[in-house]
Amino acid sequence: MNWILSPLEVRPDHRNRIGPKAYALSVMAREGFNIPDTLFLTVDAYNAFVNAAGLRERILLELNRKKFKDMRWEEIWDCATRIRHIFLKKQIPGPLQSYLTEKIQSRFSGKTLAIRSSAPDEDASGSSFAGLHESFVNVRGTSSILDRIRLVWASLWSDAALLYRQEIGLDVEKSTMAVVLQETVTGDRSGVVFSQNPNDKTQAIIESVYGLNQGLVDGMVEPDRWVLDRDKKTVLSHKPAQREYWMIPSEHGAEMAPLPEDLSGRPPLSSQEALDICDLAYRAEALFEAPQDVEWTIKNDTLCVLQSRPITTLSPSETEDKRAWYLSLNRSVENLKALRTTIEETLIPEMAKTAKDLVEQDITVVSDRELADEVRRRWKINQHWVDTYWEEFIPYAHGVRLFGQYYNDAMRPDDPYEFMNLLTQTKMVSLERNQLMEELASMVREDRQLFERLKAGELLDLDLEFGEKVNQFIEKFGDLSCAVTGGTECATDTRPLFKLLLEMAVNPSSLASRKKPKDALALQQRFLERFQGPNRKEAEELLDLARSSYRLRDDDNIYLGKIEAQLLSAVKEAKSRVESSERRGTHKSELDDLKSVIHNLDYGNRKRELAVSSNEYGFKVNPRQLVGQPAGPGLSRGKARVIRHHLDLQDFKNAEILVCDSVDPNMTFVIPLAAGVIERRGGMLIHGAIIAREYGLPCVTGIPDATSLIHSGDDITVDGFLGIVTISKKRSAWERNKM
Amino acid sequence: MTHYKDIKNQIRELLINQKLGVLSTHHSGQPYASLIAFVSKEDLKEIFFVTPRTTRKFANLSADSRVAILINSSLNMDSDFHEAVSITALGNAKEINGAEKDEILGLYLTKHPYLEAFATSPTCAVVGVTIKTYVMVKNFQHVMEMHIDQ
Does A314 score more than 90 pLDDT? Predict the structure, then answer.
């Protein structure tokens, strides 16, 4: 068993033990191409590590909590985070560590290295894995090198890699990873050459930047671009870039820096150099008998090949498009910062203004025809913001994920979600709403007369101060009867807000005592103390970005809800006019337009599919213990309150466990009463998990049939440490009806 | 999506494919576990095994018919933790005699032909366990129960 091979030791039968990227380098080395000093860690080294550390089964246990196809990307991300953390915490076993240390030291003796992935199943896939796994540049010191090797191994199990392998039908359980260790060549110019233009077979293409290639490959530095004629070996065109930045070696890898002025004015390559680079690509193409995508760098005018891979698809195919999507799961800091500016300075104020303008418009005084137009207009406005939510707000959630990885790499905590403690207890709209509710409940608690009147359903002529405060609350957040924030009077009976206030008034301790005491400040201090100088600034920036991203994850739905509420109110007005006309038996042609607009929108008639759990005569199936994802640590026991419709929330009682399909920020007002949260949707960053953590409640997410297998009134236990829900007593239908 | 038919099929599959299970009985509150070769009928309502009447398990179940049987698909490998399925069957045991005994013996020897001399010995009893509940565990900690009206 060989854990390490040098390029000249590689034989053809080693290909599936070092992966195609490493194999191509070995072939090039043998043919006299100039490649950096290189060693390959075979898949045997990976296997020795995962077997000795007992990781193989731990990974499979993580991935088999439920069917992979039933997992949302957020759940897959959570799985990937936990798996990466295991790799981060496990040391390479003694014999392998000694062997690697000795080989690395004797071969590279103090040089910095580039550490790249080389996955053997890339061959079997027929698709490119470019960018799918992690790679590191300029890594110094054996201990750091071994650390980064573990992270390259771990990237086999990143969410993007898992999803992509699943997409192209590879068996993830058989996946394995080889690693390329290369002496860092600190090129002053670098780039990529395509020996054949994917869109025009007669051409070749070069992209080039100043500094390290990482800037180009990661999409951080805009490259100059040359198009060349393959036959005539001439330059057809050169498109210069803005040339503002370059990627240069730093203490811990590589960093972006402004490009010196004397370089920004001239292209990184001369025409002759572009032709020389193309010639290199043609030679690689001839060697491998297929068009190649070659990464190269130039140091002191010497051209060096970093890697070469076949251009797998010569026209953009569906698979390539999907890989691009999976790669987009990783967002850079710069990208997220730009997104933050757009969201905070433009989109949120625009959303707030849109909602305010809609509220101020009196739709009860417009004609039927105008109302029909208004419903259409509001539908379009709402749709615009729903699209914006998916395109801008959802990707911004990656701020949390980026910080999580940064924190875990720096702190190596036992709990991979420790970083969440630095994000919770931030100012969120839903918390502000719940705080106001607590104040109202406190007024009800202290005024016996008010309490009795609310209980009796006497809502007119309420105490002035209380009435005013309630009005302020409803103006801002609605009366909680609608599934969207800002909606009012969706319920036909006693207002849900008062029912909940009464419940909170009777149970004064429910909110304040459960708030999680945290040593967030101490944790933050420990985290920041790890960094000095510019790194400290970077850490602070990332934390700030993550907090904003975390806060917005909850707030955006509330802002969106306010706009949806105004659409809903217009639809309601339209329905009311149509119904009233039908009751009177009158027919106005103007109403036809209103009818048609209501019919076409079909608003509010979306049906939710419930899981089937039927029984056969003589056999009855009951759940006993359901496995989901641990999303909020803690253990609690109580009666389940299953929410199938928004109005079910008004029956929520103190110390019940909230069970729902997906917690929306517009329904988290019951959380102060809850003893735990169970959600069908999975993930650490879904609203249920976020709000549960804010209140220190145990939370389990990602239980596929939660709302059909559990019934209101069932006695259940939520184990938020293990992600397990135990149903200790099922209620009969008769008992449930009595609740 | 969880469907009772999936659960029933998985239980059936395990009862057909597995040859051995672990029987739990007790004596004055002291639990006792023993390995048994079993067979079941298509309707999943009973599990049968053969045991000499002189054994501890037979004495225990004669004194208290309440028993549990564990059957699982583990292969004594790491992968069992995410792949193995197990069922615990809870029910009441009693000795089978008469014409039914012949029918069950036929079924039993079809599954375990190598046990012919053992199973047909006059000192052995055919025991049937009427199942009230199956508790099925998969995905490491996912537990479903199937109750049977007998």
Answer: no
What's at A264, amino acid-wise?
S
Report the residue of B82, B83, B131, B147 to disrupt the A interface, i.e. the one with the largest count of A CBs within 10 Å. B82
Task: Dump pLDDT digits (tens) for A659-686.
Answer: 998 877 777 788 888 999 999 888 777 7
pTM score over 0.80: no
Q: Which residue of B has its CA nearest to A704?
A: B1
**What pLDDT band is residue A486 in, cutting at 50, 70 and 90?**
low
Residues of A in contact with B143 (CB under 8 A): 623-626
Asked whether the ipTM of the predicted complex exceeds the cut of 0.85, the reply is no
Contact yes or no for A74/A109 (Cβ under 8 A): no
Q: What is the CATH number of the domain that holds A157?
A: 3.30.1490.20
Number of domains in chain A: 5
Give the pLDDT of residue B58.
97
Contacting residues for A708 by C-beta, under 8 A, at least 6 apart: A610, A611, A612, A613, B2
Residue A682 sits in which domain range? Answer: 625-738
Closest CA of chain B from A424, distance in Å: 30
Domains in chain B and their CATH numbers?
4-147 (2.30.110.10)
**Cβ-Cβ contacts under 8 Å, A57 against chain B:** 78-79, 81-82
In a shared domain, residues A213 and A349: no
Nearest to A659 by CA among A679, A645, A639: A679
Element (H, E) at A659: strand A657-660
Look at residue A95 and tell me if it is in a domain. Answer: yes
Answer whether residue A181 shows pLDDT above 90. Answer: yes
Same domain for A237 and A198: yes
Written as six digits, the tokens of A517 are 């005491």
